[in-house]
Specification:
- The chain starts with a helix and ends with a helix.
- With 556 residues, the chain is mostly helical.
- The radius of gyration is 24 Å and the shape is globular.
- Helix 7 runs antiparallel to helix 9, helix 14 packs antiparallel against helix 16 and helix 14 packs antiparallel against helix 17.
- It is 69% helix and 3% strand.
- It contains 23 helices and five strands.
């Protein structure tokens, strides 16, 4: 198939998930059909992304304009190496996240599959569009099903936290979307177009356009969770189920980061005047995210702050704006998506089967759950940059790019943030995985005070004459031998027995498998880093010299 003919198929990345989502609603309550169809659509998207990567090896750009309108007027779609890599990675990671959701049994709604497909249609559209207004539209298409997924699988045990997290997530994204569409309106008023290629370099030539573009970058930075408006992520993501957290981590902030790279490359023509500000914000995000992850007590909260820190590391490459720096930033983007997915998948497995995500509530999992312990440890080593995992290659290249550009302070921030991240993640390892295995700390006390809903609770032993109520110990001993707890993740019930063998694994292989796949992927990316580096180097070249992208989008 020719490059031109392949370019005409780009709208299918949006159309197929949208149409399929509607058909799934019509199919009704058929979970197996939903699961197979969602997996098939995501697999086809990944296959399409891989095909785009193969066609872009020489720097080729595929583009089309809907309805046959001339370039710069019609709704344009374009794909280069960076677009292909993101389509491939987001679809594969979403497929893994959906498998986590099925393993955790949060797929308890007719609308889970359709919402996932609408979400993917928005993601694909945002990655492919060459039109700033349609970037806003597709981001909204992403957000609408995200609100539904957030509510469908939110934390049932802590309703106040669920409401607070959902309210923050919705409110902030609505506000940010308003800022985004206002910025697009300003750019249209100044340039007469919303086509990104048609306004190429306008911000470098006109200060008014630079200010309007700055408002656009500001909105995208909020969605990417860049300092100073970064705290929403760590407060909202842990409020939903761990499976949905893993899916969101692979999509929302990463699409915003992609847009930051693309818009700065084309609209600002990589203008060097604003790079110090970008680099400063990137370093602050990297450092603050790492430091904040040290002082929190929920594992997913720790990982959420690590996501913020990772966004800073990715944007360091944009701030350096050299070919080596951009290639390193894009390599780090891919690494971070895979490694963070590995950690979140492992955390989801533990939360689902043990009913808690707090550091103090579980211990000794290295002996009881060696498979999950291995998965988590691999993700930990990769995030902090230990060889032979992908994080080592990514951070090594970021350091090399910083040294090449003479940005020694940036290099120091990257290295110190890595050490702080190691400290934060070792706290999780020490709390959850080290030591002797045993039931969660304080489990009997929480049961005794009925802090958690109990299924199958026996009637308490009547209090002796003269006593108003039985003691906590008496109430605990009066329960049946097996207690079922509704966990904070709103998923599988967790059953504990007083005489349970504490060395017996509770996490089934199918629930551990998604994390194991991502652990193998981060190892493979580290060992075969040269191949991925070749791809990110091509993508960096396309960002530094966007002329082929502009020409393809504007071609009639």
């Amino acid at each position: 198939m020719s490059t031109e003919a392949l370019g005409q198929l780009l709208p299918l990345f949006v159309a197929v998930p949208l149409v399929t989502s509607g058909l799934l609603v019509l199919v009704g309550e058929r979970p197996r059909v939903h699961r197979v169809v969602v997996a098939l659509v995501l697999s086809l998207t990944a296959l399409g992304g891989a095909l785009l990567v193969a066609r872009s090896l020489g720097g080729a750009v595929l583009a089309t304009s809907l309805g046959g309108w001339p370039g710069g007027i019609g709704i344009g779609f374009a794909a280069d190496m960076l677009t292909g890599l993101m389509l491939l990675l987001t679809s594969l990671l979403t497929l893994v996240g959906v498998n986590v959701a099925h393993g955790a049994r949060v797929v308890n709604s007719l609308y889970f599959g359709p919402l996932m497909l609408v979400l993917m249609a928005g993601v694909n559209g945002a990655l492919l569009t060459a039109d700033l207004f349609n970037l806003f539209v597709f981001i909204e298409v992403m957000l609408l099903p995200s609100y539904g997924l957030f509510v469908l699988s939110a934390n049932r045990r802590e309703p106040l936290r669920r409401v607070d997290g959902a309210r923050l997530y919705v409110t902030l994204n609505l506000l940010t979307s308003t800022i985004l569409v206002v910025a697009v309106g300003f750019l249209y008023a100044l340039t007469g177009t919303v086509n990104l290629a048609a306004m190429a370099g306008a911000a470098a030539a006109d200060e008014r356009v630079a200010i309007a573009g700055g408002l656009l970058l500001f909105a995208l930075s909020i969605k990417a969770s860049v300092v100073p408006l970064h705290g929403w992520l760590a407060r909202s993501y842990p409020s939903t189920s761990p499976a949905v957290t893993a899916i969101f981590a692979a999509l929302h902030t990463k699409v915003a980061v992609y847009a930051l790279y693309r818009v700065y490359s084309v609209l600002y023509d990589n203008d060097a005047r604003f790079l110090p500000l970008l680099l400063t914000l990137a370093c602050l995000t990297l450092a603050i995210g790492a430091l904040a992850s040290v002082g929190v007590h929920g594992v997913r909260t720790v990982l959420s702050w690590q996501m913020v820190s990772g966004i800073g590391g990715i944007l360091v490459g944009l701030g350096l704006s050299t070919r080596l720096g951009m290639a390193a930033g894009l390599f780090y983007l891919i690494h971070h998506m895979v490694a963070m997915g590995c950690l979140l998948a492992a955390t989801a497995a533990v939360e689902v089967r043990y009913g808690t995500g707090r550091l103090a509530d579980v211990r000794g999992l290295a002996r009881r759950e060696p498979l999950i312990a291995t998965v988590f440890f691999v993700g930990l080593l990769s995030i902090v940059g230990i060889p032979p995992f992908s994080g080592f290659v990514g951070k090594l290249m970021l350091v090399a790019a910083g040294v090449e550009a003479g940005r020694l302070v940036t290099v120091a921030v990257v290295l110190v943030a890595s050490l702080v991240s190691l400290w934060a993640l070792l706290r999780v390892w020490d709390a959850w995985f080290w030591g002797e295995p045993g039931p969660p700390h304080g489990l009997r006390e929480r049961l005794a005070t009925a802090a958690l809903p109990i299924v199958g609770r026996a009637t308490a032993t009547p209090a002796p004459s003269g006593r108003g109520s039985s003691t906590d110990a008496e109430r605990t001993e009066s329960w049946t031998s097996t207690q079922t707890i509704d966990p904070p993740t709103g998923v599988l019930p967790v059953t504990f027995s007083p005489d349970e063998d504490v060395t017996r694994s509770r996490i089934p292989v199918h629930l551990a498998m998604p994390g194991l796949v991502l652990a193998a992927a981060t190892l493979a990316l580290g060992l075969a880093g040269q191949g991925l580096w070749t791809l990110t180097d091509v993508a960096a070249g396309g960002l530094l010299d966007p002329s082929r992208y502009i020409e393809a989008v504007l071609a009639p």
